[in-house]
Design goal:
The model has no long low-confidence stretch (mean pLDDT about 95). This protein has no helices and twelve strands. With about 120 residues, it is mostly beta strands. The strands form two sheets. Strands 2, 4, 5, 6, 7, 10, 11 and 12 form an eight-stranded mixed β-sheet that branches. The chain has a four-stranded antiparallel β-sheet with strand order 1-3-9-8, with no helix packed on it. About 0% of the residues lie in helices and about 60% in strands.
Length: about 120
């Protein structure tokens, strides 16, 4: 069973920092692009950062200069370092993989984790 499991969410004051982690498991051979998306209450899910296997990165304009995405291909892990957090960063943060190659040569497309809550409030 392929899984993407997030950790590191929590409550932080404005201006604070959090580091989210996502670990892939379950017979994974290869993951293509990975990323993070967030969903605030009453809003659509938005992709905030992506990174492909060779390290090409994209950020949403709203997080540029504050968030940093990184990954370890060998460990099937991706991280999101979030600095200078703002109340509008509040939401559930989801780990994402556009495709995963698993044992037996099967591909899983558009794979999402269960999410971790980030709340920025004083």
């Amino acid at each position: 069973q392929v899984q993407l499991v997030e950790s590191g969410g929590g409550l932080v004051q404005p201006g604070g920092s959090l580091r989210l982690a996502c670990a892939g498991s379950g017979g994974i051979f290869n993951i293509n692009a990975m990323g993070w998306a967030r969903q605030a209450p009453g809003k659509q899910r938005e992709l905030v950062a992506t990174i492909n296997r060779i390290g090409q990165i994209n950020y949403a304009d709203s997080v540029k200069g504050r968030f940093t995405i990184s990954r370890d291909n060998a460990r099937n892990m991706v991280w999101l370092q979030m600095n200078n957090l703002k109340p509008e960063d509040t939401g559930v943060y989801y780990c994402y993989a556009d495709w995963i190659l698993v044992a037996g040569g099967r591909y899983e497309y558009d794979y999402w984790g269960q999410g971790t809550q980030v709340t920025v409030s004083s």
